[in-house]
Protein 1
Amino acid sequence: MTEDSLIAGLAALAAEPPDGLLDRIAARWVSVPGPIGELSVAFTEQGVAYVHAGDGFARAHRERFGRPLLPAARPPAGLLPALRTGKPSGLRLDLRGASDFQRDVLEVVRTIPRGEVRPYAWVAARVGRPRAVRAVGTALGHNPVPLLIPCHRVTRSDGVPGDYVFGAAAKEGLLLAEGVDLDRLRRLAGERVFYLASDTTGVVCFPTCHNARRITPAHRHGFRSLAQARAAGYRPCRTCRPAQPDPV
Amino acid sequence: MSHSDCADPVRKALLDDLDEGFAELYAAHRSLVFSTALRLSGRRPDAEDLTAETFLRAYRALAGYERDRVAQLQPRAWVMTILMNVWRNCVRTRARKPPPDLPGEPVEVVDPHEGVEEAAVRRETGDELAGLLALLPEEQRAAVVLRHVVDLPVSEIATVLKIPQGTVKSHVSRGLKRLRALGGAR
């Protein structure tokens, strides 16, 4: 090998990185309309990673993810329908920044249908940590993708919506817009009713379960605890799955 | 050298906006970083990992820098210094715990953008030479790659490798001599 051919051969070893490499490094962002106004949404090649309302999006994203943020040409597939319908609709999420516990909590909360609410204690029970009710609250407070994982549908058992990433008022507004009758929930809670049962089906539900909403007044029975409902011969609904420790 | 005057466009962009500046940094130096990573590691997947890690670390470092520090930055030498650190860490980790599926020879991963003819030409010359690079001691390989694959000036290589310029030159010339000997031996 001559000197020149060696040098030329080495120079020819330079190479371009593949086109998609930047998207392994940086997140992309778009601004989209949402049910509580304009939202900034960041996503990676794994899915939607961050939903932010109001100012300070870039700074908050940087502090939270430490990943460059570049503008996207268009929203990721499925984002707009998911925001419009309040249903997950197959949208991919990037939850790599979450702990195992937080991810479990978020996956459970993702299954709560639009127009329904569940207590914090139910989420704790569903992730196998029935005593970790406060930790569930904290995990939801750090939900990176509010609205897409509907943490606003987890409420206090007394019928008060409770805290929310975007503020308690926004939570109440979202639930009302989804058709949750908060006044009724508060009224029931005031009567110490946390479960509704039907004597035609023999099933006991959370009050916002679509099965519970179908019960006609003549056949509706309220219960303070699941144990009481069971003692009266009712079995827990297989849709809303209220099997959890009773509210204390 | 481009960074000896005050108008490095990447530095200017970084001072204006960290995220837009990062896009400039990537656009300006991605080929340099990737080529170096590819010829140091010898494997495309490793080169992609090294490049991604380098730019992520660069971003995270920049996010913590005061404005003054960014204003002093020589982006090219700085990002290449990060790459060399990432690569050394990677080599060290590999040495401690070799992955079970690591084959002895560099594997060719097909580049979908490369035409058949280009690939044929590269295979005749490039593959053999790339394979020989892997046989050089690390410091000689680094010096040869930085000097002759990506064409950095000796003074900048000295900064990146944190060694005197004379040492850079001797690593390069010993590396070339070894490559010639290895090439001739085939």
Note: Chain A has a mean pLDDT of 92.
Protein 2
Amino acid sequence: MRRTDRIAEPWGSRTPYGPGEPWPVRVDSYLADGVTADDVQHWAQSASILHSNGDALDIAVVDGRIVGVRGRAIDRTNHGRLGPKDLYGWQANNSPDRLTRPLIRRDGELVETDWDTAMDAVASRTRELLCELGPSSIGFYTTGQLFLEEYYTLGLIAHAGIGTNHVDGNTRLCTATAATALKQSFASDGQPGSYTDIDHADVVCLYGHNMAETQTVLWTRILDRLAGPNPPRIVCVDPRRTPVADHATVHLAPRPGTNVMLMNALLHELLDHDWIDHEYVDAHAVGLAELRKMLQGHTVEHAAEVCDIPADDLREAARLIGTSQQLVSTVLQGFYQSHQATAASVQVNNIHILRGMLGRPGCGILQMNGQPTAQNTRECGADGDLPAFRNWSNDAHIEELARVWNVDPMDIPHYTAPTHAMQIMRYVEDGSIRLLYVTATNPAVSMPELARMREILSQDRLFLVVQDIFLSETAQLADVVLPAATWGEKTGTFTNVDRTVHLSEKAVDPPGDARADLDILIDYARRLDLRDKDGAPLVKWSTPEEAFEGWKDCSRGRPCDYTGITYDKLRGGSGIQWPCNDEHPDGAERIYVDGEFWAQPGYCESYGCDLVTGSPVEPTEYRALNPAGKAIIKAAEYLPLHEPPSEKFPYQLITGRTLYHFHTRTKTARAPQLQGAAPEVWVEASTGDATREGWSEGDILQVTTPRGEVTARLRIGGIRDGVLFLPFHYGYWDVSSGHEPDGHGRAANELTFTDWDPASKQPIFKTAAAAAVRVAESGGVPAPAPTTTASRPVTSAVPPTRGDPSAMALEDAATAGGAR
Amino acid sequence: MNLAQTLRSLHANKVGAAIEELHRSENDLAAALLSVSDRHKADHEIFYVARDIARWSQEHVSRLATVGRDYDLDLDPEPEDEATLLARMKQKSAEIVGRRHEPALLLLADLRHIQRTAAGVSVDWEVLAQTAQAMKDRELLTTAQDCHPRTLRQMRWANSKIKETAAQTMVTG
């Protein structure tokens, strides 16, 4: 048993292991001051909801109150480990400013009301609009943080009950490209990789993925491999010197917006050296000839110039990839939120197809998720997809779904892909959507170009419903605010990026009158009197477990088949990976074994799209291209940036996360240890730029783009020259101005521009042209940025990030009994 | 004189006219795309994608000027600059704006125009590709094979945007 300050040591102690060995167990726990494990009256099984890794944990309860957490040793995901957000984040549940009563706008002010009044207002406005303007005047914008049962119910209500096509999640901002990239290459969503691939890999490539900060426990797994015998070599693509870059054999720091060029050069090298598994490609893939043609002239020398990285580094990265025996690749926001998001991410898939590195131990792709339950938003049809990876342009799939829901196929809009979030906001802007129902997300801070977003959300003609646990910036603009229960206060399941399904049990009652999201949604459906084609209630369940059973029916025979999972089966043991059915009664660690894909024209989720224009591939065209349902090698041309730097705006602005916060800090800022580690916004610049501009650590900079300005202290760190970084977590709910800037901007999205990848519709947060000037000197105060992460200062004069005594957590590496 | 040269000397006038016509129509398509882009700046995807794919037509203009030399044509390899193009489009735009009050309807009308213009360009490429084969003109054939797929993508883009926006515009807008 070891006491560790997990603010100072986010990844904790090393438990080294070698290739093919099981990852040792280390049980991490943290209990409120003065509480010991013996005091805990009840441990409720759950998993983390403050990042996407899916760390399994138990929630400690004393006298009906959450008092801490402990990692689950038995779980395949984390083998007992927890990250800093898992350890400290639960304290937000007990925060005194939780929403406990519904609010309704009266004479311009939000005032407390009762559930009946609030829900009646929402239901009657919905009914009015259905009569006046029809179902397309109603939109739903959800999240990556509800539970599977809630998304499935929401999808059913929206698609089949109300009949609107406007349903999406904030997953559009984080994981849309992951899904789209998988659909291009394998014609279906679903991760080809498994976390256990890290136990075997000899090369791990992280593309725009600062795993050390976004999935700390998965990074711990890599650190433990690196500390053991025969460690894997790491290839890191990131414009910042992240903790991943520190451990990389090759670190490529490209100019933002040039990922496709970089990937094409790597592929060019693979082809040039014939580092190709021809037998695999011949048997299991289509499209190699088109790729060869596209890559003509994409030499490392050319890419070195465009991306501004050394040609030899590119060659070395290609050699590591090309000669690896067991290759794992992970991809995240550095690709997903950048120019040509899908095109770049698809090239990572292409590497694995060309090298035959799929469906075997140590050979996996993890197109990562950014949120804990984003996978379920995608699976359940709450994010611009139809439930259970059904294909909106395949009529047979719509008929099947209509049978499951007992509705007429015409009642499910499928004349085009479900509307993506950015377009939903556009329809709100042009007045054709008049009611927007937002669940558990905060677009007033997280969407690009906030001045525009605030205008959109504050319109009088818009009826804005916000269902959340705190009065977020978005909730402050709402007409009705519905107080929700959160993790630990309701039961449900959710699934992480490697398809592991976890059960999260209710540990305590929600505060005040707050209710579970599922209960609120069902109440809404009942008030609208939504019915199936035989006149029975459309939503046929009232508990999470019943909803889960309903979902299982819907998932039957589809790639994400849950039919073999029950709540009971999830209780007590490890999470279970889908597909879990008669064929795989204990779940499936790997998919795409032996080059078998879900890409058959009649079965696949998607026919793909044009990577430049986003136009869907027509069904007939897909059948001709890929009749046998093989993997698809899809080539992509490099396009110049949409907003290149200019004389007036000479820098490239990228935004991103820090390890200690999640999203707009609604929870993490209410956990004192996390908030203390990263209390305020900062801006990062390189030593080269700082020297040239005459800036010093802690100087106050004003960063501007044509959209707005943000004022922040400067951290001089390991970012590439010409690039500025702003963390996107900081909004206005904890400053006096409430939902908008008071004088100076604090939210990174004041600066970002409204543009998205035409294929995945994911907004571009990483290539805005920006200017920066110093408005005040530091006065000896350094930037309030963590020193433990990618924001590490170049100077040693900044005091290191440490927790106070309340941050001491326990690590127990001696616990008997292991994860499977 | 080999067969290809013989064929070229016999039919240079007609083929030259076809290249010239396509050179003009690709310039038109670029203009139409840039115009749609500018007029629908609030529809961000339209704004950016239309500009990205207008570049294809501009590249085609330059490639047509190159192959045109074999047919004694002196076509401008530089695509018409944006100002000239937009000036040319003004009249057409005004016409459409005058008839369509609703901006969303205007977008539909503009996309319809793009699809029809691209369809015309596509037919012209078909004709040129067939001709190139009959003439055994490899350079012309390669040009058609490189460029024509992009025209189809431009056309499909317009069509898919129409499908995406039509229902909202017609029923709810």
Note: The first helix of chain A runs from residue 84 to 89.
